[in-house]
Design goal:
Length: 236
């Protein structure tokens, strides 16, 4: 019996179609993350994942793709072979050097680092809501960015909007109220998934790679790899 036929039988038993299974996998591998509270679409797909989790893991297992499922906060994130994942045992497989990686610019890396640092600070102070999120103003983010890394948020509205759109695509933040208008009194929420995206070891590594200047524009060839896809040997 072919693999697809076995899969079809398993899906039929759970009352799902092969197209629904494909839609789930394509979305998960394309975005790298599913967050139940992001949208109606992701709520549907996350709930589908919960019902099909065993089949998804079986399907991805031969590829050595690692999956982290946080049932408390309702998100699923995938990691490539060999990636070091906070909360999961190390994998003996070496990560590939190919395209299953997400590149972040230096500006994006800087913001991710500060978001993680601010989340850790709030966690120590007990300033975390029931969903595991941390409230942070854009003004507070700008101050932390300057104090920690001597950098600033982009001055142009379009560049700043693109930056925060990227953070949202990675499911690291929520926008609140008029945050999308990029005014200083706007607020955002840092999601708990930031802790699985940036480990302490890799956070220290990337902090050391960032230039300590506001004026240098990141070039395409200078893009720093996302901590999500850092090879184990690079994180040492």
């Amino acid at each position: 019996m072919k693999l697809t036929e076995q899969l079809q039988q398993s899906l039929n038993a759970k009352r799902f179609t092969l197209d629904e299974f494909s839609e789930l996998l394509i979305r998960l591998l394309d975005y790298g993350v599913l967050s139940r509270d992001e949208s109606q679409v992701e709520t549907l797909l996350y709930d589908r994942y919960v019902q099909l989790e065993e089949l998804v893991l079986d399907y991805l297992s031969p590829l050595h793709i690692r999956v982290q499922h946080d049932t408390r906060f309702g998100f699923v994130r995938v990691f490539p072979p060999g990636a070091r994942v906070p909360g999961l045992p190390d994998d003996d497989n070496q990560a590939f050097a190919g395209g299953f990686r997400a590149n972040l610019s230096q500006q994006e890396v800087a913001v991710v680092l500060v978001l993680r640092a601010e989340y850790d600070k709030a966690l120590r102070e007990g300033q975390v809501d029931d969903q595991g999120c941390v409230l942070l103003s854009l003004e507070g983010l700008g101050i932390a960015l300057r104090n920690l890394l001597n950098r600033t948020l982009p001055e142009k509205k379009t560049e700043r909007a693109q930056l925060f759109r990227r953070m949202r695509q990675l499911r690291l933040i929520h926008f609140i109220a008029n945050a999308e208008e990029n005014v200083d009194d706007a607020w955002l929420k840092i999601r708990p998934s930031i802790t699985s995206y940036v480990s302490e070891a890799v956070l220290d590594q990337i902090r050391g790679e960032l230039p300590q200047t506001d004026n240098e524009e990141p070039q395409a060839h200078d893009a720093v790899e996302s901590t999500l896809f850092t090879r184990p040997e690079e994180a040492e």
